Amino acid sequence: MEYLTGVKKNETMEISQLLAESTPGDRVKVHGVVHTIRDLGTVAFVILRKREGLLQCVWESGKGEVNRKEIREAASVEVTGILEKNPKAPEGIEIRMETVRVLSTPADGQMPLPIAKWKLNTSLEAKLNYRSISLRNIRERARFRLQEGLTRAFRDYLYGQGFTEIHTPKIGARSAEGGANVFKLEYFHRPAILQQSPQFYKQMMVGVFERVFETAPVFRAEKHNTKRHLNEYTSLDFEMGFIDGFEDLMAMETGYLQYAMKLLKQKYEKELDILEISLPDVSRIPAVRFDDIKKQVSQTYGRQIRNPFDLEPEEEQLIGRYAKEAWGSDFVFVTHYPSKKRPFYAMDDPEDPRYTLSFDLLYNGMEITTGGQRIHEYDRLLQKMESRGMTGEGMEQYLLTFRHGMPPHGGIGIGLERFTMMLTGEDNVRETTLFPRDLSRLEP
Amino acid sequence: MEYLTGVKKNETMEISQLLAESTPGDRVKVHGVVHTIRDLGTVAFVILRKREGLLQCVWESGKGEVNRKEIREAASVEVTGILEKNPKAPEGIEIRMETVRVLSTPADGQMPLPIAKWKLNTSLEAKLNYRSISLRNIRERARFRLQEGLTRAFRDYLYGQGFTEIHTPKIGARSAEGGANVFKLEYFHRPAILQQSPQFYKQMMVGVFERVFETAPVFRAEKHNTKRHLNEYTSLDFEMGFIDGFEDLMAMETGYLQYAMKLLKQKYEKELDILEISLPDVSRIPAVRFDDIKKQVSQTYGRQIRNPFDLEPEEEQLIGRYAKEAWGSDFVFVTHYPSKKRPFYAMDDPEDPRYTLSFDLLYNGMEITTGGQRIHEYDRLLQKMESRGMTGEGMEQYLLTFRHGMPPHGGIGIGLERFTMMLTGEDNVRETTLFPRDLSRLEP
Q: Looking at residue B253, what DSSP letter applies?
């Protein structure tokens, strides 16, 4: 029997440790994967890929005990050597190799994609087909570090605002909300579906925890084949009770965005540099009515309004453009969406029930959030359902929750991959999805 | 157009604010749900349920402007009044009501379960059938706050250890690993499955980020109907590269447990008090070999070994008992599980390939973690698969990853609901699952 007492400090050092704890001339030990080798005959630059970035190691013929032939691209190695400054090397440091221990050798060091290039100019198709390889490229993987930052900020900020994190089931019975766009499966000889949103559950939990959030996958069996749709994505959802109006939801999301940008700046500066991203200003975000901004962009950009009750993607882009030109903002809340375009649980505007107390958030003209106040009174909920010809079948527990009292409440859902796409300036949401699921893609 | 600039401080106060920022005699405003009313005729104690706990409000006939009849159980209200000390009230404070504003009235204030009782002595079946109601009970909901703490600690600790959070797809193509225990669905006219673990994906991402974790649902179509199995649960998974051995994984998990207990003590003291939980000592966790401890408990407790290559639940309980009696520990790592009981990717022990470099973590005799070192060399992986009669069908991308080089690595998966069950001393995992999915339960 032995005791485990926790993590001991590693002998091998990370890049940040080399920079903070070592000085030139020190003998250090590091591990990493051989990202690429620049071989000049009697000298070779061996670039290690580490989790924090790239690290240059230098082999010189006749120096140290390193057998140059042992060092192959894609091998995992442990290197000891002397740390030196070198302004031309990544992070301004390099290691003069003394010994190398090969931990793992690839069966095939010839990568199917040129991952060692700074920019991986390969087709999206190829990148997705070889996902575990293409992401070994420094720039490709950096996007997912920023995605981590967005998720992490969401949770940290909401913990601080008194929210409770919940885990709601993804397999469920059929419900009225779903319609045709749900994936169906068999659950021990019973028909079941994959949840397309945690909506009902998070509302039910508002009656328990008052403020809840979830960061989890959602599933949409939509037959869209666009650059901005996925059939499975990560949804950052919150729902909060005791709101005075849907403005409280927009304020909470603005607070999150401010916190997220601060966190990215503090903890993900390296990735922002790698991708040359300057963070958007979220100190204030304009909010405009759906009908007003629709007219405004129609006038400003001379585009005819085809459907007064819906926004086409091109209109969203123009609204984004207008927000930038008129208010200098990359973000804009569009409020009071038409009732017929919102689900039954959306609260209608008492001043004009054709519209709802709801909103979308556009980021450079792309919808990344849908939110709004929900109906909290049982009788009104039943009325609204009736007016839409819905029955309560499969929604018994949801309705029961309202029957026994619910505070005024509302919430939002953010599409994480889309948000990351806009932040990183990509034009296809698959670029910011580790393993996308779309009409044609079920693997890897 | 208006600007959103973030969250403004609420006029209404939370319990922690009342305790920290107010003094007796202050006029304060709070909101909450009327949890219960104790009516003494000319005086009534109105207990509000707030997200941080219970708050006593006092109505007195003839004082203030409150219409007593307006106040109903399960109503959402906003109360103003004078804060006073009262050692008999929750948190030692109460509010003498001056005004009340009813924000929402229940259609039916008669709860289907007696949620205002301190202990909800209702059958598990009834609690699950009325999940959104039963969790309104203070003790019932407290368990899920602790569950939040365990998840939060997992992420926070691993961020600090250089891990990257990933989101891997839950819908996938059929793979060899799955076997019979996977849920099947139709994905745009193609056969698909729900992932029973992020195993392949997190290994593939070790080649990219070196250290990764995920906290997400997994799906098991197992026909178990026990107190400790669920068909959908939340898995806390990590995988890390450049390990020296599987001991590094146990050390990392021990570090997590230490961090988690510290976080619970710091931020979830209220819930620990409500549930009368004293946290386990995780300063050191014993690790014992599978074959040794099996013999040990057989001798100590006189139980015959039926199958030398497997642990029965009763044996796990005895191991837990032994760890407590011999080493004073609620936790024990059991190492070197037999190869035939581990998946193909488990690394066999070079000293005795009948066993693997893997482990389970038992908590009071219940398995809450499975982990181990994985095979990282392509050729050995193929050999192991061949020896088990497996083909690489559906695993092309997984195998390709190894073909192009992978560091030595391993990881673990923790069952969140089970861990919470053991921490809270429950004997059924459904007690610590918001909305359990089992053989018979697909709703709510």
A: H
